[in-house]
């Protein structure tokens, strides 16, 4: 199994990395990406581990950062739709498929 990123999720990751680089330094920004990769691989191995939400989606929180990964389980892997800061409004990027 593999994972793929929605274009919007790629932007979410880039925005978060830019934020952490600017406000906390490159080491923290790199740690954010490492934590994201850890979560993504965990979801590939155990796609049902996330909390079910609407429209066939699941959400899983990152451990070290206040972000959640919203994804959909597909036949050949998972599709990461949103990487959402947990303090953003709940409907953020809800139209992504």
Query: What general outline do the C-alpha atoms trace?
Result: globular
Order of strands in the sheet with most strands: 1-5-4-3-2
- At the fourth level of CATH, the homologous superfamily is RelE-like
Q: Mean pLDDT, nearest integer?
A: 92
| Beta strands, count | 5
CATH architecture: 2-Layer Sandwich
Low-confidence stretches: none
Radius of gyration: 13 Å
CATH class assignment: Alpha Beta
Order of helices and strands: EHHEEEE
Q: Roughly how much helix do the residues carry, as a percent range? A: 25-40%
CATH topology: YaeB-like fold
Our estimate of the beta-strand percent is: 25-35%
Count of individual helical segments: 2
The biggest beta sheet reads: 5 strands, mixed
Number of domains: 1
The SS-based structural class is alpha+beta
């Amino acid at each position: 199994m593999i994972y793929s990123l929605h274009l919007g999720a790629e932007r979410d990751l880039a925005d978060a990395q830019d934020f952490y680089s600017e406000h906390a330094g490159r080491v923290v920004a790199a740690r954010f990406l490492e934590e994201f990769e850890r979560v993504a691989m965990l979801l590939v191995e155990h796609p049902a581990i996330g909390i079910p939400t609407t429209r066939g989606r699941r959400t899983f929180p990152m451990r070290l950062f206040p972000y959640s990964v919203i994804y959909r389980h597909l036949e050949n892997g998972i599709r990461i739709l949103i990487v959402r800061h947990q303090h953003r409004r709940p409907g953020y990027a809800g139209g992504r498929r």
